């Protein structure tokens, strides 16, 4: 997938500073990019959003998306908008240049949607309705790994709350004009969060300990972006507490992998089984068998299935919420 790439340098470049720049309107870098195919920003960037109040990401009413990241060159804020087949991007902060260079890849330039062939009627219908779906590739590991660890074995609401509280308290205000966006903490800051603050955020010791082990080897984990997805997952899973579920959720975002399937999920096998066969009691093995016709594109197939909204009717109570901060 290739497109026309026109970078433009903005004013007031802040590269190299350690602190977030003061509130400013003028971007440090700009980009105009014309992708060869339509790009649906909500679909493409949606997996980066960790709940409706995610302090690192938001989508405005006009469809533009804002994202705050800790890049290899420092913190930065990115705004992207798609209009009339053209993507316009602006970035602020020390990481502005890095974010601008990454926009085409982030929005699926290296993705190959033409490699996908629907094998089921329900998948084909979603595929036709959503021509703008591309798989993101952030090129960053920790920003997807840490919230994925927070989502282990708890409800999404609990995980989103923990992410929101910890990023707002220990992260930093994002560069640029937005007052609401925050950049997630750097590895050393994660490592210094007191145990009682994890407790107040509702994060048990198992998940907090996994995050602490991960940030101690942050540089080695970020190196995984240069590996192919299976090798990257192997490296991530060397950290105790990071298993197949977490590594898949991370690599799907950091690498844009079309084939990495999330196994060990409480709901996904049932959703896939119900959508493709009408059976609701599918397990991981059954899900992988059903997805075998999509070998090489199984994650993309799952994305289309989730977009159908076809889920099995609930027959058991929701997973209980455990507020450990009150224990």
From TrEMBL:
It comes from the Bacteria. GO terms for molecular function: alkylated DNA binding; DNA-3-methyladenine glycosylase activity; DNA-7-methylguanine glycosylase activity. Gene3D superfamilies: Hypothetical protein, domain 2. InterPro entries: Alkylbase_DNA_Glycosylase/TA, DNA_glycosylase. This is DNA-3-methyladenine glycosylase 2 family protein. The lineage of its organism: Bacteria, Bacillati, Actinomycetota, Actinomycetes, Kitasatosporales. Keywords: DNA damage, DNA repair. Residues 1-36 are annotated as: Disordered. One of its GO terms (biological process) is DNA alkylation repair. GO terms for cellular component: cytoplasm; protein-DNA complex.
